[in-house]
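Could you help me review a protein record that somebody else here produced? This is what I was given.
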Amino acid sequence: MTPRLDMIGLVVSDMAASLAFYRRLGLDVPADAADQPHVEAALPGGLRIAWDTEDTIRSFDPSWTRPDGRSSRRELAFLCDSPAEVDALYAELTAAGHPGHLKPWDAFWGQRYAVVLDPDGCGVSLFAALAAQ
């Protein structure tokens, strides 16, 4: 199967300020989300947008640092059909010369998850739901 763009991720230093900004742009963000470490909202057409605090990102990617002009607070996330597809796509992309940032792993939030960097150094997440256990 072909992975599909499913989510746009934003890393924020101030969750409340970021959510207020995007609410002013018309996004339907949950009212009680300002104190959460991870927030999601549906976009027209089925895409999702997500906000994660810097601490949330560092909880699974300790090497992440605030952008200095060479890194990004934006990330695209591609939904794969299975954990095996995450592994295969990560292997295919890294074999083609694209840097792997986070090797595939079983994330504590219930997904097989990996990150590859695009040619400009932007993170591209690959993920699939883990099988129910």
Notes: The CA atoms of residues 77 and 125 lie 4 Å apart. The radius of gyration is 15 Å.
